[in-house]
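Colleagues,

Please find the record for the two-part complex below.
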Amino acid sequence: MDPKMLNVKRKSKITLLSVIAILSLSTIMPALAFAAPSANSASNWEYLNGNSWAQNYSPQTQINQDNVEALEVKWIFPLGSKVLASPAMQSLSRLAEGASTPPVVVNGNVYVLSNWGRMYAADAKTGKALWEHDYTIDPVEIASRLPWANAKAIAHNHGFQYWEKGNALLSYGMACDFYGVDANTGEMSFWVKDLCLDVPGNGGIYQSSMANSATIGIYDKGDQFIVVQPGRIHSNIADVAPHDSRHVTMGINQNAPYNVEWRVFSSPAAGVPDKDWGIRECSIGFFRDIPCSEALAVNRAGLEWDYALPNEAPGWWVSVTANWGQLVVDEETGTMYTQTGNQGPYSNMSLAPGPRLFGSTIMAIDLDAGVRQWWLQPFPHDPYDYDCNWSGILMDTDAFGKVYTYGCKEGRYFVMDAETGKPHLVVDIRDDMYARGQISTDPHSLVYEPDPRSYYDMREWNWISYPAHVVGEPGKFCTLPCTVFPYWSNGMFGTDRAFDPNTQTYYMYEVALQVLIREEHSYFEGERNYNGGRMFSTSGSPNANLSLTARDIETGDIKWSWYYDHSQTRAAPITTGGLVIASFSDSYMRFFDKNTGEVLREINTGAYIEIQPTIGKDDDGNSKIFSIIGANRRAGRAQYGGAGLSATPGTLIAVGLSDRAAAEAATTTVTTTSRTTRTLTSTSTTTSISTSTSRTTATSTTTATTTAMSTRTLTSTSATTATQTLTQTSTAPGQTQTATVTSEVTEEVGMSSTVTYAAIAVAVIAIIGAAVLYTRKQ
Amino acid sequence: MQQSLTGFNWYHPGYDDSVSYFNPQNALNKDNVIHLEQDWMFPLNSEAKVHGNETSRTTSHPLMANGIVYLIDRFQLLMGLDSQEARIHWASQLSTPEPTSFGLEYYDVHSRHLNYFDGGIWVIDLDCSIKGYGATNGALLNEIPPNVLCGGIPAEAIPRETMFRSISSPVFYEKERIIIAAPSGFETMGGTLSYIMGISVDTGQTVWKTSLTESAQENLVLGMGPWPIDQDKGIVYIGTGSPTPEWNATRRPGANLYSNSIIALDTSTGEILWQYQTIPHDLNGYGCTGNLVLGENDGQQMVYGACRNGYLYALDAETGDLVWYFDPPSVKRMNSENANFVVTNNYDPSKPWLNYPSTDPAVQCPGVFGAVSSNIVLAYDTVYVSTFNRCSRVEVAPVVNVGDNGVVAIKDLGTPVGPVNSTVYAVDASTGEVKWNHFFDGFALKGGLTVSGDVLYVPSPDGSLYAIDTSIGSEVWKRSFGLLGSAIPTLIGANAYGNWTLIQIVAGTPLLDIEVEHSTGFLFKFSIPWEFVATTSETISPAADNLGYTIYAVVAVAIVLMIATMIFYLRKRR
């Protein structure tokens, strides 16, 4: 062949290969970018639970198993008392002291929001105050204009977050509003008001609370904020007005004038008889792992006329309370995942029987269509307040693909298909707790779980000791006084959970708090059931312990657990740098080896901690752990985790490596160890076939470009049964790489680096494939 | 041999009866201080509503006895903290009279020091009672009622607007079980509190009372301290403050005897044995209310004291004669001529105010907080003193009524004029010569110093604790706590398990130029890991141990001889 022609052919082939590579990259990159959570950064902690998928995970590695001994308190930042709030704010009922939001970390600054509306910004490096912003309202003016009341709400705030697109901190207000504060200046960027004005089907009064949900949902692709205006906490207890308000989730355009683009309701319209409320969306729902359609087929009468007596409108106190966790948004699919609080009236259901949808319900909302995509109610017809009170986590799993994982107070967690809500896995942690000896009585005997296929269970078993009317009269489930497990105060999981995407491990507390019900005060048929806030006379259990547990996300099997004998906690665990970091009521911040559960370090902060830590970097690139300590009610209810009712202002502390250790971390060599090459084959009940290749997990003692890359392709097709083949490859066990640190940022960008490496790997595969073809052809 | 117990406990506010602020332990020292690890942090009185209920009281200097740390927080909560676990072992709320009870509209009175005596933790409470609590359980062991210490105050006495005042801890003359205490720290109009008392521990009765003013209309401040006591000779040494009104002396001509003085008192009788007045007729609001230190120099007993005028004085403890003085070269001086008496041996007893006859505002250097506002330390034949420059603008006002303070706006006195900086000096205790100095720019070092293990610990308003080599003045370690400054002296001791421990209170006290009034304070505990501990040991049973060494030596020699013999034998056979 003419050499020139050969060159031309070669050039053509090179060009072709390049095109293939570029096409491969351009095809895969956008999908991968949206397939990962946003804000998954080693430097920032932007959302309540870290990233947009609420994983309580940070890819930073500067603080890790090998240097955890060198951690120390770097600075302290005392928070102010609520007496600094404006007089108008102080006129609000039960304005809480302290702060209960995990600190947000963005671009070297750390932000805290107090329960009484002050937002603080401080330099993450020094603790120097940068600015303060005070939220304030005029309750009299608000009440004159809106269906809103200065209620007996517990005005504590579960969380706030950063919105990168607008460079603003987002928070709910206390009067049907939410607002953004400029992250640089502390000035109000925008303030969206009157969300509870003209809500269709609302016949009640919204209340003053910052706890409508923990955070504002952010769906940038759709230019939407997602906000919730809920009914009241325990509904009839907060009896400041005759009617409870209607739970509504709204899509709000991110641009002025911030129009409402859609509404999804989770409680029925007031004053309107609605036979089909409980069955209208039956085709997309589950009661536990029972398809709603299956229950409907055998118990239609039990599901109809939800919240109401037949042919009547729902009662005065019908509604659903707040979504307490982070609103998890999947930018790729335009889906938001959330879960609701408990229903009203509480706890006598005789005027409002049925499954009481969509209270205490996990759900997905199609943000583009503005409709509920699926729902799963773990505990239909609930008299206990086993609501779904914290954040769920969106996960990209080896075993099941993309799933949403959450468990409500009653003690089961569900690994649900993100698209359909169908549970891949249901794990009842009560059995493990019983086996471990955390509780001494068979947990299944301490609670009655209504069956959605039973008419009696859905419409006639209307209070805990039913049908008893007085103490001592035999009840179907229990005869008062009787012990119930779990106690509804914070529930079985107590707080948020964490997920390590590298090891596919789910970290959670498993809390053994029980309660003795001495008397139910309102247990008469037809009882309107507002009794000055006292539904029960109860005694807390002296048995108040928990286990911090690591579970395999695929099987639910326990990898390790660590027992804590003293109390519940609301300070959720986070995972980062090969560690699980958790804080407890005994003042200790503990650092666990994420693989073994070994306690590697304890730091005694001297004050009760009930707010989860967060982690991010200061301007020097040094990682710091941020925690609010001492913002709590120290006496009385410590074993219950304080319930966020803080009596003290609290203090923000920053924990970081000692200067010496930080310097060593910046100059030391790198030792990288990886999991060994292995091939797994498993069978599951998913409706997909997934083939994935090359997940590599590596831990590094420091920062380098040589570690941890994950490459993965996933294809799925529909099938009734599924076979999954997972091939994992990595460097050989024990292999040690030594390299001088070159760039911390390049190594610690987490999912972003994963995406990059994945794209490169695909390109390489494409090139190799092309080369093989070319070689074969020759 | 066993680990020495020297330095395990910090019983008295200045470590010992000499108030040296020197812990002689050497396990934690300049070679291993860099290995200190933080064990815990304890927020002080987090129940308090900090903002909106601000106080300028300071947290007391802590004590440490048998593994328990004792202190009084800014809200007068006396507590014993388990130093191992940061748990409140016991606590007792001391009295918290309303500020107006004493007319303290600006700063609040507080109990600056605790003391340990006879198994108890003792304090002078703000209601003038003297209380002793069981060190192990917090039980109230003894309470001297308020009328004993403050009974001489007329009921109609009117409080006077004043500045920062604190009450020193009681001092105990062990042989006769006498409490030596002074109520000053409170100031009144119409009833002087410028006296010192000896009170029986066992009966609560007054043993003696020595007044330092001639009439009930006169006042001079005592307070602060702490004061050293010579238990063998029965002498207590007390520093006094400035006469009042501080900045307008129109109504107090003369030397104003006993003001700005170092006084030796017989602990049995209260008799004044001698007095040395550092500043006659003070016009600048200085004083000598910081600690005095009792020491020895070539067999001569010495008393060392630094006054707010910036001079360090070394006196013969027997006679009160001046042995030497040290004039820190870094301290700027302006409109404070009478304060230089030790240099000039001259003063104007009739000058009414600092820039008389002008009534214009004038700059005073050292400022109203003086040039020394820290305790001094005596260790390794060296006196360590921290000085600062922080001048003040003073505008004198007429004194018409009793109780007038002689300035237009007392609150404005705190504003600094000119550059602010600090210099720590190491001064030869024998000669007064400077060994070294260490400069800090931008802030005034106020609070306290500690020496132990060849390290001078300097808590600083810049948020750091500095560890300085006592021999050469170089920095060997520094620990930042962020932006909350520190002033309360570092405490070195050992916890109940014998782990060497460093206690540092961060914030919890007003600091010049630093906004820490909003903070209740935080207690940090550090310890040195065993592998880094220098073995300091002492022979407990010398005879037995020497015998043991002798036996070992004999055995060793025998073995060497035997080996040598074998070698010799084998070689010979070849």
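Chain B has a mean pLDDT of 85.

Comments are welcome before we finalize the supplementary table.
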